[in-house]
Amino acid sequence: MKIITVIGAGQMASALSFPAIENGNKVRLVGTPLDRSVIDSVKTIGFHPTLKRQLPKTGIECYQIEEVNKALEGADVVICGVSSFGVDWFAENILPIIPENIPILSITKGMIDLEDGSMITYPQYFESKLPANKKLSINAIGGPCTSYELADKDHSVVAFCGHDIEILRMLKSLFESPYYHISLSTDVVGVECAVALKNAYALGVSLAIGLAIGPDGLGHEHYNSQAGLFGQSVKEMKHLLEIVGGGDENIILSAGDLYVTVFGGRTRKVGTLLGQGFSIEESIKRLEGVTLESIVIATRTARGVRALAKRGVVKLSDFPLLIHVDNIINAGATAVDIPWSSFESEKI
Amino acid sequence: MKIITVIGAGQMASALSFPAIENGNKVRLVGTPLDRSVIDSVKTIGFHPTLKRQLPKTGIECYQIEEVNKALEGADVVICGVSSFGVDWFAENILPIIPENIPILSITKGMIDLEDGSMITYPQYFESKLPANKKLSINAIGGPCTSYELADKDHSVVAFCGHDIEILRMLKSLFESPYYHISLSTDVVGVECAVALKNAYALGVSLAIGLAIGPDGLGHEHYNSQAGLFGQSVKEMKHLLEIVGGGDENIILSAGDLYVTVFGGRTRKVGTLLGQGFSIEESIKRLEGVTLESIVIATRTARGVRALAKRGVVKLSDFPLLIHVDNIINAGATAVDIPWSSFESEKI
């Protein structure tokens, strides 16, 4: 039995309580300042209002953020359960109070672009934010897994990544279950880059859905065009993985994660609306309240690639889909002008 | 204007008449002995009964098989439009009568396993069947494209492959259109292997659909499990591409083609029925009349991999999904026993 302190009571972090508790562990669920009502609900009736599921009846203790120190006392592992919008809060408020011997497992997916165009992962970002002389083992979860289906115990195949394989094996032992299958990798950059990119590209693939169903939403979905964009996405993600120095085998994660995001994720909704011809402002308005990480990630990735192109490290023409998505989001381009012919290649 | 003689009036071959005729070419559609009623229908009312579309009103001439020599007279290109079940008929009856100066473009996807476990493409197979001293330029089409959507002029991104880039460029000029986008590759083995494999793996991914909706078909689809199988498929296809010596970039085609086959193809129906718990015999019975190439390809690929494993060239444990699919089809295994934990890996 281990004590797992989860900081951030969002959907995915909370869904992890199912395999954790089934394995005989104790979960301490700590809300961020934005999670007060979630914690109140779980505490009183056991119901998670955004995950829309009853959490396990036993094995969970709930804490508001003021009680975070108590929740960390004697903890064996800390889960960083914030979205990409909460990472700075986590870095400033939580990292300093986690004891050095407690490993962190982060569910936040994404990359951050630096000014020179290089992109770093959240584990790298967290490491850069540690107080002087402080060391923490920062690990992360990647791979195709939506929180609802994890809570419903549907089979999921994910990857835990970090620098120390022994710590990864320990973390795996806490969560591995008959429905939650975990690969391990010390290629943190490869895994995190692979899973971050799929958000941007899921938006790109979903454009074809919106284009097919049309502004009134009454048309039929077509799959040739989705598959064309899916293939182009894999091509560009493969190239981006090379650029950041991630192992080529991580394209397996990218492809699986792209698949689940196009079908089960929120990004699909953004891309579909844009494909239907709504502006980015109108699309965001229609999705009020929905986390829009894909927009942030697409913008960041494109900014990174543009900066690298300026330095001559990459050719912008190798990323026509990413640039098109970025132009829709940030420069008023219309979805229908997908640069199809630039996806063509000649291999001699 | 070129004359394109299409032999085999199946759905995909017939759908190609749309971009071909839009580019100002003439199409001569020749039915195989199995296509008599198709040819009669197109000839009299212009309607293709299995594609379920009106073919272009002008530019198509129809021929029954007895008129094949007339249809070949003055032709610039021959399309081989038979399914994998028709390749031997095509090799025996048509290859010998095609003049050497006319290039062939084949739409048949698939690989054939030889006794030693090595797999060859249909272009290679056709070349091996040519009469002594006869030479033909045999090219092929790969990539994600369903015939219905091509006929509806939805955007599709495909690849033409062959040994001679100049011939490929000429072929591209006949079919390239605002909705039919064509990459070219001289890596015939890579392209053909990539697109053949996806049939077997689309069956594997679809198992998760059947498992989720259940025997009565009333359950909801889950995407985590589909994505887990999709990622594993990409992993195994990538490895198989290495084995046959195909370029690694062809995984882009495999992934895109896998995507469209899971969503728009017939293979989905087979995998779903098997996933629902029906035996292979019962599943085939329920799909009466539907081409079941995926079953043939999965069986062949697995047979090839098993032969290679016997020779020590590969490890069978690297292909747990393919072997599971093969065991369901050929050894009475049940779909529910998906070897999830064997998909896990450790990368240090």
Relevant terms:
Rossmann fold, two-stranded antiparallel ribbon, 348 residues, homodimer, 15 helices, globular, N-(1-d-carboxylethyl)-l-norvaline Dehydrogenase, domain 2, alpha/beta
Descriptive overview:
The structure is a homodimer of 348-residue chains. With 348 residues, the first copy, chain A, is of the alpha/beta class. Chain A folds into two domains: 3-186, 3-Layer(aba) Sandwich (Rossmann fold), CATH 3.40.50; 196-343, N-(1-d-carboxylethyl)-l-norvaline Dehydrogenase, domain 2. Chain A contains 15 helices and 13 strands. Chain A has helices spanning 11-15, 17-22, 36-45, 68-72, 87-93, 122-129, 147-151, 165-175, 188-213, 224-244, 251-264, 267-276, 280-286, 293-310, 320-331, and strands spanning 3-7, 26-30, 47-48, 53-54, 60-63, 77-80, 104-106, 111-113, 119-121, 138-142, 156-161, 180-185, 346-347. In chain A, the strands form three sheets. In chain A, strands 5-2-1-6-7-10-11-12 form an eight-stranded mixed sheet, with helices on both faces. In chain A, strands 3-4 form a two-stranded antiparallel ribbon. A two-stranded antiparallel sheet of chain A has the order 8-9. In chain A, helix 5 links the parallel strand 6 (77-80) and strand 7. In chain A, helix 9 (188-213) packs parallel to helix 11 (251-264) and helix 9 runs parallel beside helix 12. Chain A is globular and about 60 Å long. The termini of chain A are far apart. At the A-B interface, strand 12, helix 10, helix 11 and strand 13 of A face strand 12, helix 10, helix 11 and strand 13 of B.
